[in-house]
Amino acid sequence: MAAPTLPRDPASRPSAAPTPETIRGLPRRLGLWSAVAVLIGSTIGSGIFRSPAGIADKLPGPLPMLAVWVTGGLFALCGALTLAEVAGARPETGGLYVFIRDGWGRLPAFLFGWSELVVIRAASLGAISTTFAEYLLRVTGHDPAQAPYSDWVHYIAAVAIVLTSVFNYRGARSGAVVQNVTTLAKYGGLLFIVLLALAMGLPRTGGSHFTPATPPGSFAVGAFGLALVSALWAFDGWADLSFVAGEVKEPRRNVPRALIIGTVAVIAIYLLANVAYLSVMSVEEIRHSRLVAADVAQRLIGPAGVAFVAVTVMLSTFGTLNGTLLTAPRIFFALAEDGLFFKPVARVHHRYESPYVAIMLTAALGVAFVMLRTFEQLADQFVTAIVPFYALAVASVFTLRKRADWSPPFRTPGYPVVPALFVLATLYLLGNAILDPSSRWATLATLGIVAAGIPVYYLTVGRPARRG
């Protein structure tokens, strides 16, 4: 971490013109529907294809299984409705980092950046790119679980990270084009599976897989909490749009609208997908299906269905990977602008007007993690680390509303209940993960890594003697 700079004051800057690579600020080039595509594309990845089996294993009943998806959707919606207010008033590059900084101060904001650097973003990129690589191998007729292809997964995932970083290195517009195309493809692919299952599968089963709704032993509070973590992995991404809020056109109007439209669209397709799965397969069958969408499609239209789903998952995860490389580097960019990270990370490319150093840093971290960790290790670590900061970002609305200059274009409906529900749900998730023996030590270890950022802060950018 670099020593902090003095607060940015236009009057105190050198009179000489800055070099092209150090110009601060990123151009606003993303319209409303590109912003919606960023949110949807960053959210719909591998979760909706991989999580149902784990959820059905913990909650082996149709109603509990669907209830956890509804709960996860409401959780995300409460967060999105709150961030629509905060992001509309603070449409700046960095998103959650900016909200936490303005609401709670420099130390919590630094800890968010620290966690993104050492755990969150690299783990996310690794998990997404690993799924992409596995499906690419399946499409080409190879088993990613067998040698030598099990080793190839890591290399293919690393190449995918590098490729999407190149798209975004060339600017937000280039990244947005890839995002728009892959978002349409993945959403359309999921919708096709839903329509196919309802039109062909439901008449065959007669809805028998929905009864009994709650079989004995299909619900427990602790199991529900653990299953909710899996659902939240699938929903994660609803806040990523805020990271590029500084590049959205008419941000006070478009950022809140995109947050709400995109989140509602994701909730709708996720619920429909799970209804579609149950229309074709029983909960017990879903429990043992790691690739539930592919199994559903195979039952309906044979091998062609499996190929279609595999390609859909590939496009889905590739789009999410691209969205992550579009949004996440803006966190490190904002940190560097504020003097909480190395100053060169805030450089803007003279031609492409992209935060190219931050993009290269993010890609390098993702490649390093994907070469060393498995999907399960990456996904679990990511969820545990990000949840506390979602809570802090959403809770910032309580402190920001007390300011005399607070004039958001959109106000959270149901305030203060809606943000409070989100924060309480977050505390429940963390508490449940700590109390459960199967996840306790992994959760505490991840939280320990986050807490390790406190001494780092005071030894570097937080030293009182250097603050001016």
Automatic annotation (TrEMBL):
<feature type="transmembrane region" description="Helical">
    <location>
        <begin position="152"/>
        <end position="172"/>
    </location>
</feature>
<keyword id="KW-0812">Transmembrane</keyword>
<dbReference type="Pfam" id="PF13520">
    <property type="entry name" value="AA_permease_2"/>
</dbReference>
<dbReference type="GO" id="GO:0016020">
    <property type="term" value="C:membrane"/>
</dbReference>
<dbReference type="GO" id="GO:0015179">
    <property type="term" value="F:L-amino acid transmembrane transporter activity"/>
</dbReference>
<feature type="transmembrane region" description="Helical">
    <location>
        <begin position="30"/>
        <end position="49"/>
    </location>
</feature>
<feature type="transmembrane region" description="Helical">
    <location>
        <begin position="69"/>
        <end position="88"/>
    </location>
</feature>
<feature type="transmembrane region" description="Helical">
    <location>
        <begin position="109"/>
        <end position="132"/>
    </location>
</feature>
<protein>
    <submittedName>
        <fullName>Putative permease</fullName>
    </submittedName>
</protein>
<feature type="compositionally biased region" description="Low complexity">
    <location>
        <begin position="8"/>
        <end position="20"/>
    </location>
</feature>
<dbReference type="InterPro" id="IPR050598">
    <property type="entry name" value="AminoAcid_Transporter"/>
</dbReference>
<keyword id="KW-0472">Membrane</keyword>
<feature type="transmembrane region" description="Helical">
    <location>
        <begin position="300"/>
        <end position="321"/>
    </location>
</feature>
<feature type="transmembrane region" description="Helical">
    <location>
        <begin position="222"/>
        <end position="246"/>
    </location>
</feature>
<feature type="transmembrane region" description="Helical">
    <location>
        <begin position="441"/>
        <end position="460"/>
    </location>
</feature>
<feature type="transmembrane region" description="Helical">
    <location>
        <begin position="258"/>
        <end position="280"/>
    </location>
</feature>
<feature type="region of interest" description="Disordered">
    <location>
        <begin position="1"/>
        <end position="23"/>
    </location>
</feature>
<feature type="transmembrane region" description="Helical">
    <location>
        <begin position="356"/>
        <end position="375"/>
    </location>
</feature>
<feature type="transmembrane region" description="Helical">
    <location>
        <begin position="381"/>
        <end position="400"/>
    </location>
</feature>
<feature type="transmembrane region" description="Helical">
    <location>
        <begin position="412"/>
        <end position="435"/>
    </location>
</feature>
<keyword id="KW-1133">Transmembrane helix</keyword>
<feature type="transmembrane region" description="Helical">
    <location>
        <begin position="184"/>
        <end position="202"/>
    </location>
</feature>
<dbReference type="InterPro" id="IPR002293">
    <property type="entry name" value="AA/rel_permease1"/>
</dbReference>
